[in-house]
Design a protein that fits this description.
Length: 215
């Protein structure tokens, strides 16, 4: 399965987004965190900014919705041209219907789990999604320390996915010190915010992270 390094724009400079998007042109996609001051205690960007980013780049757009009502808002991000839209399983009221709707519009459907959420309760709906996102920090902020307690869940999720072509993404505290452990546990899509955008050379950091996974 392909390896993807997707820098999180949460750690970019929002006043210089085009510059920072261009700075990671060698990445495999851009991870965009949408937060609503309700599902998480932070507020970021919404649909208008995502629509502008869509016009500004051909990069694969990976939207991570940390919002209370994804059933209502997620389809608009797919309609805006995002290639992947991920909702939190703790927030979705009808996750199967929502995943099918995202796919119908033409986006990949992703399902995210907070650190305290067990994957086994959702094993029966894994076939409805294209990606599972395992949060490796409590969602809401960049720059937090990677939670090692999430590693067994990454391993378990890969076990449940078996040989199905479903991506396994990790997000939170992912950097040169932690990415290898995530890859060994079975992740193949890696979100890195502060590690990339706090680096002197963000593009070189993307290459370094990719090299760490390749071993
Ligand atoms: O979803 C997120 C926070 O909720 C971010 O994508 C994540 O925190 C990335 O930041 P960092 O790599 O600095 O931990």
């Amino acid at each position: 399965m392909e390896t993807m390094i997707t820098p999180s724009l949460l750690s970019a400079d929002f006043a210089n987004l085009q510059r920072d998007i261009d700075a990671v042109a060698n990445a495999d996609g851009l991870h965009i965190d949408v937060m609503d001051y309700d599902f998480v205690p932070n507020l970021t960007v919404g649909l208008p900014v995502v629509e502008s980013i869509r016009k500004a780049t051909d990069q694969f757009l990976d939207i991570h919705l940390m919002i209370t009502d994804p059933d209502r808002w997620a389809p608009s991000y797919a309609e805006a041209g995002a290639e992947s839209v991920t909702f939190h399983i703790e927030a979705a009221k009808a996750p199967i219907r929502l995943a099918r709707e995202l796919r119908r519009i033409g986006a990949r459907a992703g399902m995210a789990l907070n650190p305290a959420t067990d994957i086994d309760g959702y094993r029966d709906i894994l076939g409805e999604v294209d990606m599972v996102l395992i949060m490796t920090v409590e969602p809401g902020f960049g720059g937090q320390k990677f939670l090692d307690l999430c590693l067994p869940k990454i391993t378990r999720t890969r076990e449940l996915l078996g040989d199905r072509d479903i991506w396994l993404q990790v997000d939170g505290g992912v950097g040169p010190e932690t990415i290898e452990r995530c890859a060994e546990a079975g992740a193949n899509v890696f979100v890195a915010g502060s590690a990339v955008f706090n680096a002197d050379d963000p593009a070189a950091m993307v290459d370094l992270l990719r090299a760490e996974v390749a071993g």
